[in-house]
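Something for you to look into today, if you have time. I want to see for myself how the chain folds. Leave the record below and I will have a look.
***
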Amino acid sequence: MKKLALHWQILIGMALGVAWGMMASSFGLNSFTTDWISPFGTIFINLLKLIAVPLVLVSLITGVSSLSDISRLSRIGSKTIGIYLVTTVLAVTLGLILVNVFEPGKAFSPEKRDEFKEQFAGATTEKSSNAETVKQQGPLQPLVDIVPSNIFRSMTDNGSMLQVIFFALLFGIALILIPPDKAQPVNDFFEGVNMAILKIVDIIMMTAPYGVFALLAGLVVDFAGNDPSAAMELLLVLGYYCIVVAIGLALMIFVVYPALVLTVGKTKYGHFLRGIFPAQMLAFSTSSSAATLPVTMECSEKNLGINKEITSFVLPLGATINMDGTSLYQAVAAVFIAQAYGIDLDIMAQLGIVMTATLASIGAAAVPGAGTVMLVIVLQQAGIPVEGIALILAPDRILDMLRTTVNVTGDTTVAMMVARTEGQLHPPTEITVR
């Protein structure tokens, strides 16, 4: 019997996880789920995080050193960052258009707003405190943070991925500049390490369906508590806001990205979606672009035919600085909260949101919930009450899953565009998915 493809296994794991979570909430199995099932989801996430830094470090070094030409590296780098900024601004602008047209915040009653403020007071204070720390830093602090003082310390923290990328780029450039006979043994070493790391990724992905099941089961139990109807009621109250965000994210995946893939990538979008579907499903279940990175790279190379030289540079960079889904969500959430408080934002305030959300998305870590902290900075810049973040915390985990899927799709779209313009796209005749 033919083995079921990985993406179908992940989908089945997701469905069973949701079903188990609802059943556990109904029959009082919350503690059992939290103690005996949810930890396996944490283990799966830890395994993905474990391999993220080594994968980025080694793949970037091998990718950059293989270019053998500094001018080519500069061209690919500037092209990549330029396209990332354009797609991010498009996402923020789309979010602002939708939230101003549908005005979901005006559906909130003052009573419900006060109820949410009280319920999420603790979480709101924590997010505000974290954002205040970021805000008090100087204007050039993000640039300072990119350069590590100790690369080994940076490699112990997935949140320092930009520092790892900086070191890997510097190391790769150095390999290009030294004599080829001296560089070759080092290149061979990293090539071997890269193959070993990719094999570890294969091993980890064998556990993906079970890890996704545990993640979703734990998520549903945490959200619903002992009363599944409470979760349903909360979702209905915030449903309008969620729908607006979901529409924006759907437009990115089914309108904006197809236009880019078809016109620049010269590829049928159906082929593109089939190729990255496993990565999208993993992004949806983990809410982490960094954790999904190994699978995104594998799908891009094996299923879409993007040269490893491009994926090893563009995708790790994208997982760190390209957050189209997150920036769109920040635009919608900020105006939504303003509407709920009865605040009218003029065109200049909304242009400020575009700028702040774009820059905030670059600084957001590629881990679950990071976008929420950066949202506080967006709110403060626009003069919107930070306390209003309590209004959107309830459904944020679900929306985080959706926007991470958009983030990963956007990264792959840009990788395909860069690969096509560099003559490094050679689509396989058939998509093979494990």
